[in-house]
Amino acid sequence: MFWEKKLAQWVDEVRTQSNLPARLVLWDGQKHDFGQFTEPQVTLKVKTASAMRLLLDPSLDNLGEAYVKGKIDIEGKLSDVINIGYSLARSTVKNNTSKLARVARYFNHSKASDKKAIQYHYDVSNEFYKLWLDENMVYSCAYFENGDEDLATAQLKKIDHILRKIELQPGQRLLDIGCGWGALMLRAAQKFGAQCVGVTLSQNQFDLATERVKAAGLSDRIEVRLQDYRDLDGQFDRITSVGMFEHVGRKNLPAYFRKIHDLLAEDGVAMNHGITSSDADSGETALGGGEFIDRYVFPDGELPHIALVLEAMQRGGIEAIDIESLRRHYARTLDLWTEKFEAKADQAKKLVDDEKFRIWRVYLAGCSYAFEHDDVSIYQVVCRRAGRSATTLPWSRRYMYDTPL
Questions:
Q1: Cα–Cα distance measured from residue 176 to residue 330, given in angstroms and rounded to the nearest whole number
Q2: Class in CATH terms, 2-100
Q3: How far apart are alpha carbons 82 and 60 in whole angstroms?
Q4: Interval 30-78: pLDDT, tens
Q5: Which residues form the active site (predicted)?
Q6: What confidence tens digit (pLDDT) does each residue in 112-160 have?
Q7: E strands along 55-194, which residues?
């Protein structure tokens, strides 16, 4: 068969150039080692000949598809599996640069399509997310002040870090765009005395957030809405957007920030916390990772480079006044999520089908690798309406750390 000759050639190239501690086992018992003098740490078991088309063109998208569709099984420590996957994908770049180039893609991002995309990702089931998130169900990058915090502590520190950054005061009106299951609003109302409005497009998030607000006795201070941010009106003293703007679309960013501008009080402060591309042209995540995520995890997601974010802010009438990278923090967050997901694998398989389980397994671990190696990044940007006097800015960042709770 044609693929047999191509397979032998490919394995020989990988063995010579990369010497990977991995073994390929075909459905008929054939074995091929990718390492010359190393014991395999990872074994890829090919279950069907239909997998060869994907395996012989091993972008992250193709490798991911072969795994989630059950065409291959993988044995080995998950972090080793991801390392091998990236190494195999990199081995194809020289021969397939056009396919793997970082090309910016643009999606429609109508209200209907955005709602459908959000519900696809977030409405898996609340029980599924509870398995591997912290007790407050915070689904965004945590903040490790010292590096040794457990997940729940780091997530609470992240929320407090955000609320300190925007200098939230008792009685102020806070808008949380993409409020998730309500953790930030609950903290803002309980510890900072704020009046909160949160919006989400996920029915599951809306239902549980509403339930949690009621259980906390905070229905008079927190309002949860199943609503598109574009339909909001009114004025808010503070605005937070955490892990949401990745769904906005690159072309829509100026309008998104203009909406924040219009919703923000004249002396208000906002903070945008979101994942960014590490490609200066805001292109797709390298090696086919972006294609896999768009198809199986985050439909219609688009990652802008931080430079494009700042430009879009200015075009939307917003001034950035503080910028912080949390890339290291997200790599650690994803490591902890992955550990919990692996530990709860048997329970997860009872909540979702095999394909969905495989998607989330490689997605979480793969994202950890991506943040660790600067394939993607993440920034918190504190901002306000442009054109205000410089005398209203603090002299230093000390207020972010010294404010007692």
A1: 21
A2: alpha beta
A3: 10
A4: 999 998 877 899 999 999 999 999 988 889 999 999 999 999 999 999 9
A5: 367
A6: 666 665 665 566 799 999 999 999 999 999 999 999 999 999 999 999 9
A7: 72-75, 173-177
* Spatial CB neighbours of 247, under 8 Å, sequence gap ≥ 6: 109, 114, 117, 118, 178, 298, 300, 301
Furthest-apart CA atoms within the chain: distance in Å: 74
Task: Look at residue 91 in the predicted model and tell me its pLDDT.
Answer: 78
**Cα–Cα distance measured from residue 13 to residue 11, given in angstroms and rounded to the nearest whole number:** 5
| 342-to-74, 104, 139, 211 alpha-carbon distances in Å | 14, 33, 17, 29
Domain boundaries, given as residue ranges, for the chain = 2-100, 111-402
Tokens of 301: 């997601």
Say how many C-beta atoms besides its own lie within 10 A of residue 46's C-beta. Answer: 22
Structure tokens at 40: 């395999």
Tokens 């001034």 locate to 319
Residue with tokens 């945590």: 142
What three-state secondary structure class fits 220?
coil
CATH no. for 111-402: 3.40.50.150
Convert 263-286 to b/e letters by CB count within 10 Å (16 or more is b): bbbeebbbbbbbbbbbbeebbbbb
Which two tokens mark 179? 């409020």
Q: 300's torsion region: left (phi>0), alpha (psi -120 to 50) or beta?
A: left
CB contact burial 320-353 (16+ within 10 A = b; e otherwise) = bbbebebbebbbbbbbbbbebbeeeeeebeebbe
Residues that are catalytic: 367
The residue type of 282 is S
Model pTM? 0.91
Cβ(79)–Cβ(111) under 8 Å?
A: no
Structure confidence at residue 36 (pLDDT): 82
Same fold, 2-100 and 111-402: no
